[in-house]
Input
Amino acid sequence: MSTPLKIYLAPFQGITGHVYRRSFAKHFRGVDKFFTAFFTGIHKAKSLSSKAGEFETTHYNGIKLVPQILSKDAAEMLRFANFCHAKGFDEINWNLGCPYPRVANKKRGSGLVPHPEMVDEILGSLMPEIPIRLSVKTRLGYFSPDEILKLIQVLNRFPVSELIIHARIGKQLYKGGVNLSAFEHAAGASQIPLAYNGDIFSLDGFREFDKRFPETNTWMIGRGLLVDPFLPAIIKGLLLPELSQRKAIVRKFIDDLYFGYRKKMNDRPQAINVLKELWGFLCFSFDEPHRVFNLLKKTKSFDEYENAVNSIFEKHEWLGSVAGLFRPSG
Ligand SMILES: Cc1cc2nc3c(=O)[nH]c(=O)nc-3n(C[C@H](O)[C@H](O)[C@H](O)COP(=O)(O)O)c2cc1C
Output
């Protein structure tokens, strides 16, 4: 019997926090796991108390949440794991993927991938103590896509619960294509359950990846899902409303987000900036993405924002990922 297809929402710092997760889980289907954006600098468990909202629930409408950490310090990771365990979580995720030079130059995120000996040391002291599962999200390397092979040799020796691979190297940031043959080599070497991540933007695109990696059943989707939140359900072949009804659902979703962020940010107009980050992706599901985004771009007050959203939904059609209008920059 084949394993059921699983889809995870990729974490996005500043976008996919608890307000997004709650609204998404209310309106859309098809996602099996959420991840928080990474936490870092956890010098004391108290450092996390200001982020209480991120840990308020372990599941959103049945979808499990996995808290993520960016660290190269076993003691800090254990502190994080203990904190999450006490909050009822049964897994944390270790970020070996962050590509930004100020992170990677300090041998954190994808900057740790070329240093498997450090990973070995960290896991050697962490794993005997950790009370919950540890999964890993990584890139293929920082400088070169074969760095992951040595990393996998180390990871294979520890009870890592899952390995999610974004099929790029750190140096690429988000530019250039994904490296499918390097992912294939990594998949061949890994004894850990594997998930693929990178550039799944449509059903047709997904089918190509699925054909190429028939052994892979778990897929993490980021930008493609921010553009079209129906994409996981489309990929899973779940029953879906017509396009015109989808537009009405997206309207409810975006309104929930709007009120959610206003509440979270005590009615400060900066809530609009958070929404604009998401609209930067969502606009590509409408018939004229740039026009749609331009309507919102300059809005500063809640009135201006509400008027812009009203006119988007009045004047523009929802096409979703089928239109293929999203083209990643670079
Ligand atoms: C603005 C932004 C913030 C991100 N934040 C995180 C993060 O906190 N943790 C993480 O593991 N990945 C983060 N990522 C990477 C995504 O989770 C994902 O791996 C990447 O976008 C590739 O998947 P995609 O091609 O499906 O979008 C971020 C990416 C972007 C563009």
Notes: DSSP finds 13 helices and nine strands in the chain.
